[in-house]
């Protein structure tokens, strides 16, 4: 079990004192040593991203990287160093289930790229065009490609990444690597073996590892001892094994298929057609084959934007949601295939079927054991149990049945990543049930001693919903993972930039005893463009306003100025100065959301957001900030000195070091009271700790922004000073005093009512603004 949060804080503090010592001088109380190896001496060989598994999920990640031009060597000599490892000898997608004539059950638009970027060169339509099949496919009038064709499409896309993909390798472990100076895990060592040579390990190091190993065949407990028997096969190996198991196409075989889902039904139907003289039995526990629910409204559970709603639900609510919607994906069969099976069984009743073998369904049957036949060792005996029914006055019965071949359509288990990641697991944060804590960005939460990142895909159904193991969300998910990786690169580079002295001046991490003193966020290092302030803006503001000389200099764009671990969320909140080189697309997206534009009035083209951010960066009293949870940007803040602010300096009698901030929460996934409470506490903590002379923080939300004012009143020890008429809005002026803030109890999740208005509330006065000032405060 990992240490408690307080112990993590103490350990992080001790590590800070020992970071300059040799690794051997750090005691075992301060750092995990489970299978830790020292960093290799050549960091230039370290990969930025290493993908473990190159099925559709890994391929979608590669496609997203290629679309954004970030892979080194693929049109970008300065891009990320990327590599993938795949245990298959070539790209194959469910090759054992590529049955003739079977179609996809999802639209071709849910391919590797379309939902993320319809203009990508990796779309299914682009594939059809290059293979001269676009018009013929359109003439089919179907959204559902043949399965063999979709596999061909995936292989076509994968071929374009041969230079960065290592086929025929099995990953054995992902281990932590310690930095000698800091004692922090800054990289990961990934060990693999060639399928053809299990003796020679292949070792790679990486800052980010993306694990997408897919599902592994699930064998029921009764079948495990016979998993290698020549008469037993899992559905995943069906087309590879069936010609060897049943070589005579005219043979009078007796065949069993165990399962009640789509794969079981497909195997049952295919075997009946493939072996006309055989008898095929479909064995399952339910009372009937049940159709999958793919109706329009229910199908929305597979939409990428449904992930946010699911992720933010409480655990038990998520589990209930999965139970209620299981009929969309589990133990269900496409309705048209059910009709075909029923028609096939009906035709067995017709006179023309006389003398032919009778295929049959065995509902309400359970296999509880398996054995070899004493008379015919190549055959298997299934021990079957029927379900009893008091209403029909019959008891359960058991009997044995002999089969020439048994096919298990019993699904997949998705836990292989746990074994692979076991060496680094001591650094993973655990939930109340000792399970992994997986963030919205698919990153496994780590403690403060691990700055390397591990992402998982396809095994997050409990946190990210039913679509996690399916193709439906892979294109959008790949972008979310890549954005997280790039964002953490930016954080790491800013932390290591020459402007670190600015960080130490503004970053409250050096203060003792305040609530922000929590584990640092996991960060990694990589190049990123940091825009330095223009020389022309460095001197003129001070000359125009002598008061500027009392304030610390503004930090450079890209600089991280604050981090705080939020125990209630098990996530790290961070602030960095907005960077025109990287943040304009994000700000453009956020400002053009109707709910944001209503209060900010800064919607418009990209050029407008670029000009706006440039004006804020040049402002002598204003700092534009991007806020993130676990490296995922979610909000934009502007922190200003109220005393020299063109509005607030006229609204009330300001003090020299008063500060205020504007708020724009752009990410829909990061809304809700629990999030607001976390970022409000963090922002106030950051501001009060950045300058010891700041006695109060002020704000002026629009008076009709009831939701925000409600949160301020219930989460902060604040004074409501009243409403004031500004030229562009009626604002409610709020104030948080340092004295009240420092007396607040440690956050517990309660919602205290706002304090009464102080006796020294000043008179608020309507003011007129210049156009520039009005633009700055049009929030």
TrEMBL record:
Requisite cofactors: FAD
EC number(s) recorded for this UniProt protein: 1.14.13.196
Catalytic activity: L-ornithine + NADH + O2 = N(5)-hydroxy-L-ornithine + NAD(+) + H2O; L-ornithine + NADPH + O2 = N(5)-hydroxy-L-ornithine + NADP(+) + H2O
Pathway recorded for this protein: Siderophore biosynthesis
Biased composition (Polar residues): 760-779
UniProt family annotation: Belongs to the lysine N(6)-hydroxylase/L-ornithine N(5)-oxygenase family.
Record-given protein name: L-ornithine N(5)-monooxygenase [NAD(P)H]
